[in-house]
Each structure stands twice: as C-alpha cells, then as structure tokens.
Write a structure and sequence with these properties.
Layout (H helix, E strand, L loop, with lengths): L5 E6 L6 H13 L5 E7 H7 L3 H15 L6 E7 L13 E5 L10 H10 L5 E3 L8 E3 L1 H26 L6 E5 L9 H13 L6 E3 L16 H22 L6 E4 L9 H11 L3 E4 L3 H12 L3 H13 L1 H5 L16 H5 L3 H8 L10 H8 L2 H6 L2 H9 L1 H21 L1
Parallel strand pairs: 1-2, 1-10, 2-3, 3-4, 4-7, 7-8, 8-9, 9-10
Antiparallel strand pairs: 5-6
C-alpha cells in the first residue's frame, strides 16, 4: 500500500466528528488541495474513553459513505508497539510504530559493531544534494548513533514483521518524536539506514524536531533553526530513498502538528521547494473544538463542569503528557472564576486565536489533556455532542480547514 503524497492525520477522541473532519478535506479538494485523510487513535486514548480500534474504522467508513468520498483514506493504529498492536490489525491499514521507549537501550555490542562496519563508508564529510555544508560523520558519531538508535530500529523491525505476518497491505510509519532530544539530520540519515537494514519499508518518519511541540498550542523555539533543520531533513529523506532503496513515497511526518501556526509557512514553503510529500497529525484539536462548539451552543454547565474536574485533577491528567505541555498553573483561572464567565468568554479563552484578548494557552493545554473527564461523563457528554452536532461540527470543520489545511498545504 502506497501512502499518498499529502495526508492529514485526524484524531477524534469520541468518534462523533468523522463527517465534520472529512468535510474539511472535501472543501480542500475543491480548492485544489489533494489530501488523504487518516483517522488516528492511540491505544492510550482507546483505554481512556473505553473504545475499541474497530470503532475508528467504523467512523471513517461511515463518514466516507455519508459524504460520498471517492478518494483514498486510512485508519492509523497510532503509537503502537508489540504489546498493543494485535487489537489494531483488523481495523487499521496504517501503523505508527512507536519505538521511543527503546531509544538509548543498546543493541548487543556485536550488532553495533556490525552496523558500524557496514556503514563506515559514510564517515567523513557526507555531501547530500540540497544541503550547503556536508554532514559530518565521524567514527565516534556513527558508533554513538548505533548505540542510541539501533535497538529501537530493530524493535521497529520486530513490530513490522509481526504485522506483516498477519496483514498483507499497509502503510508503515516510524515514530521517534517522543524522545528527550531532537535528532539532527545526520542521525536521521543513520536511523533510515537502520530501518533499511531491518527491511522496514518505512513510508513516513516522525523525528523529534528542535523546539517544543506542546499539545494544541503554537510552536515554541527558534524558527530559523527549525527552518534549517526541516530543510536538511527533507534533503536527507530524498537522499536516503536513493541510497538505501527505501520506498519512493517516504516522507516526513509532523507529530503534535496541530496549531503549530508559526511553522506552517516554513513547512509549506519547504515542501514545495523540494517537491516533497508530508504527513501532519492534528491529534486532539477536534476534542477542543467540541468544547468550543458546546460552549457556543449554550452547554454552559457541562463545559464548566469539565473544567472544574480538570482543574481539580491537574496532576493526574498532566502527568502522562508532561513532555508535551508547558502549563503555568498560576495562569489558570480558578473554577470559581470560570463559573462567572459567559459561554462566549469560555469559547474565546479556549479557541486558538492568539490575537484574542481572552485566549489562554494554559487553559487550552489543560483542557487538551482533560478528555478523560469528559469520557467519565459517558452519555451526558456524547448526548450533548449529538444534540449540538451542527454547531460543534461547524467548529471542527472550520478549524481543520482554515487553521490547518490551508496554511500547510495551499
């Protein structure tokens, strides 16, 4: 299965916004933007909302049927490993192999030495078309990269082969974004060499870029450094395809890509410059747009109850996401303050329009990780989504189309 050149990964915690999400892709197509929608949901999210992987396939198929979508689409088993993948095999045709937990766990010494010996020809100044200065690869950096990443890429190979024994056709993504430090272009090149050695036909690679990719808020970091790194990574991917015989469809994947407004123009420009493909995951943006829509629709008691629960359970909710949120708790409004807000003020504080005087990125980040609170409300929450489907859906579509798809792909 070959992934399309441009694709958008769409998370939907409660599986009610499939049509609204697809409507954004349909509208983009009318503007000449060809995108493959990819519905994604991780094992952690399924456990929190008590859903099954088959529900994502059902949601995607239903949305496609309802809107008469004739283009390609996929269902992503997001951030899976050997321990969790089996439940996803029947419903998914896109697998994000998350091997971040295996980074820095060393492979056997003899395998590290074998990799070093097999790739010693790259030691020195590695000239890659499109990169002004050759990459520096030393014997030491080659061995350090093998010590840091080889075992993780071997794990990717184990997961890939496990799926391949059970499923014939699927897209393989490898994720190393949830690690402590970003990978430089030389390390990305060697990671791709390791995946090629493992026989993994990787079609999207999600490295960790420089800067902060916090959940649901804008990029924090040096834009010039990000631009240089992203430009060089695109060159590395193109070179690795030729050098290692990796799939021609291989492209970069930007995880936690939702709301990174300041880097969208950079990504747009560089992807066009290189004629490259791109995959972007928008993750929990849809869940936040549900809350915005519910507030606009007058579900005041419900959205304020969710915030009160999130505020009270901060430590519990924030802990699993500690590496991808930066919340200043002193800048969080108290539940008592929020109780005094109008529905419009609640929506404006949450909606990601940075020019709004009411916008609060700390409020937004906390609610981003608070979907567990809504999940515990069960039908009270989902019934509200059904009752206010038009208002909620309009917000979901507009957010995805206007704030994400157009700036990235137009």
């Amino acid at each position: 299965m070959i992934i399309e050149k441009f694709s958008i990964g769409m998370g939907d915690r409660f599986a009610h916004q499939g049509e609204a999400q697809l409507r954004a892709v349909v509208e983009a197509k009318k503007l000449g933007i060809e995108l493959a929608p990819v519905w994604n949901k991780s094992n952690r999210e399924h456990k929190i909302v008590k859903s099954e992987p088959s529900s994502v396939r059902a949601e995607a198929d239903a949305a496609v049927a309802a809107l008469g979508w004739k283009g390609p689409y996929h269902v992503d088993a997001d951030h899976i490993g050997l321990a969790t993948v089996d439940a996803f095999i029947g419903a998914s045709d896109f697998f994000t192999l998350d091997v971040a937990d295996f980074v820095a766990k060393p492979a056997p010494a003899e395998e590290i030495e074998r990799f070093v010996a097999g790739h010693r020809k790259y030691v020195g100044k590695l000239a890659i078309e499109g990169i002004a200065e050759p990459l520096e690869v030393t014997e030491e950096s080659l061995r350090c990269a093998a010590a840091k990443f080889l075992f993780a890429m071997q794990e990717a190979g184990r997961i890939y082969r496990h799926i391949r024994e059970r499923k014939e056709s699927f897209v393989t993504e490898v994720s190393v974004d949830e690690t402590d430090t970003p990978q430089n272009p030389a390390e990305l090149f060697l990671i791709l060499a390791m995946l090629a050695q493992e026989g993994v036909p990787v079609q999207t690679i999600a490295p960790k870029f420089t800067g902060r990719f916090n959940k649901g808020v804008d990029y924090v970091g040096d834009l010039k450094q990000f631009e240089k790194e992203f430009d060089e990574d695109l060159c590395v991917v193109a070179f690795a395809i030729r050098e290692f015989g990796l799939p021609a469809s291989l492209k970069l994947s930007v995880h936690s890509g939702s709301d990174k407004f300041s880097i969208y123009p950079i990504i747009n420009r560089l992807v066009k410059k290189h004629g490259a493909g791109l995959h972007v995951k928008t993750a929990g943006t849809t869940w936040l747009e549900e809350l915005v829509g519910l507030a606009e629709a007058g579900e005041e008691a419900l959205v304020k109850e969710i915030y009160r629960g999130a505020y009270a359970r901060y430590d519990e909710l924030a802990a699993p996401y500690s590496t991808v949120i930066d919340i200043d708790r002193s800048k969080l409004p108290t539940p008592e303050e929020v109780d005094g807000w109008s529905c419009q003020r609640f929506a404006a504080s949450l909606r990601h329009i940075q020019s709004s005087p009411d916008y609060n990125l700390h409020f937004r980040q906390l609610l981003h990780v608070a979907f567990k609170v809504a999940a515990e409300l069960g039908s009270r929450y989902t019934d509200a989504l059904k009752k206010n489907a038009a208002v909620v859906g309009r917000n979901v579509t507009e957010n995805l189309l206007e704030r994400h798809i157009k700036p990235i792909f137009a």
